[in-house]
Design brief:
Mean pLDDT: 83
Distance between the termini: 17 Å
Strand order of the largest sheet: 1-9-3-7-5
Oligomer: single chain
CATH topology: Jelly Rolls
Shape: elongated
Order of helices and strands: EEEEEEEEE
Number of helices: 0
Helix content: under 10%
Number of domains: 1
Radius of gyration: 16 Å
């Protein structure tokens, strides 16, 4: 059973795909960027679950990076349960921020565009969101 799956009865419809989307977005301190990551049409009524992470790097001259990642998908707020995760790192290099989203009770044939908002809270150098990787799961309810 894949990590994070809600059901153990696989007689129901189920689809899972891995993805990696290159971004290379330069984001200034105190600002954010919204990225369209992945699209899918829901073939049946059910839930969509996304596990992923945003990878970023910052200049070696920088001494701190604070980055938050959260959903920006435009589906009614009553249909999703997600959160914003923040990570911080010091003295240059790479940082990965996890992401989780669940969009429940979607109707059959719903067009789903996974959009992610990346916010740089603090950076005294150049912050670059390099790519978003993850897994998307569609399951019938």
């Amino acid at each position: 059973m894949p990590f994070g799956a809600q059901r153990s009865d696989l007689q129901h419809y189920y689809y899972e795909a891995m993805f990696s989307t290159p971004l290379n977005l330069v984001i200034a301190q105190g600002s954010n960027a919204v990225s369209d990551i992945y699209t899918v049409s829901m073939p049946w009524a059910g839930d969509i679950l996304v596990d992923g992470w945003m990878n970023a790097y910052y200049d070696s001259g920088a001494t701190i990076l604070n980055m938050s990642v959260g959903p920006a998908t435009s589906i009614a707020p009553s249909n999703y349960f997600t959160g914003v995760k923040t990570e911080a790192d010091a003295y240059g290099g790479w940082i990965s921020v996890p992401f989780f989203g669940r969009w429940a009770n979607l109707a059959a044939n719903t067009y789903f565009l996974l959009s992610v908002r990346t916010t740089i809270g603090a950076c005294n150098g150049r912050a670059v969101a390099s790519h978003f990787s993850g897994t998307i799961r569609l399951q019938a309810t």
